[in-house]
Amino acid sequence: MDLGISGKWAIVCASSKGLGRGCAEALAAEGVNLVVTARTKATLEETAEHIRAQSPVKVIAVAGDITTPEGRADVLKACPEPDILINNAGGPPPGDFHNWTIEDWQKALNANMLTPIELIKATVDGMRARKFGRIVNITSSAVKAPIDILGLSNGARAGLTGFVAGIARKTVVDNVTINALLPGPFDTDRLRGNFEAVAKSSGRPIEEIRKERAASNPAGRFGTAEEFGAACAFLCGDKAGYITGQNILLDGGAFPGTL
Fold this sequence. Notes:
Family: Belongs to the short-chain dehydrogenases/reductases (SDR) family.
Strand content: 5-15%
CATH topology of the largest domain: Rossmann fold
Protein name: SDR family oxidoreductase
CATH class of the largest domain: Alpha Beta
Pfam family, one: adh_short_C2
Largest sheet: 7 strands, parallel
Organism: Sneathiella chungangensis
Structural class: alpha/beta
InterPro entries: NAD(P)-bd_dom_sf (IPR036291), SDR (IPR050259), SDR_fam (IPR002347)
Order of helices and strands: EHEHEHEHEHEHHHE
Shape: globular
CATH superfamily of the largest domain: NAD(P)-binding Rossmann-like Domain
Helix content: 40-55%
Number of domains: 2
Low-confidence stretches: none
CATH architecture of the largest domain: 3-Layer(aba) Sandwich
Distance between the termini: 28 Å
Strand order of the largest sheet: 3-2-1-4-5-6-7
Mean pLDDT: 95
């Protein structure tokens, strides 16, 4: 399927690895030019070079922290009029809410709620004026089914979801859609890090924990960044203009509900 977005420009946040990289690669395969950003310059440059080798698109790498005003300014300077915006940031650490301070909450809200809102505010009016825009927020399956130890993530991402629910109904008249992708367990560094923490605390082998967790999913496995990227690219396509304000769960069937 031709998604009709070849030649357009996308900003993809936290795109040096994991799900963000999967989105960047899928968009590049559709002919979309990219501004990729992440904090670690070496990893980001490696990703940019890989994409350039695979696709004849322009790729600009901007190393920096997207959760800071300076980081956002650098990205928007490189791409002041994006057609596509993929908001993404690593989730806050798990824990017991009794131990979280105001500073912990402020950091989580800044990264997973306020930064996406600031980027939307900086780009959505231009998209509306040009009569095309696609904004995809990568959140978490915890928005749909909260996880007690992920309270910081639950709260911040749910706040972003609530904000988008209102604005997405205003922008769609100008062919600007805003949606969220809610990943469940995907084979990423974050998931592997969680397994390492469980292995350390339990004394069990990592591979044993990995197999157990994979088997507990109805799909019998974890998702891949390529699968996630394909879903993201479709939402960014010109044929997805009637989808807005939605929270699309990608979890291999782990959520047992119907809605």
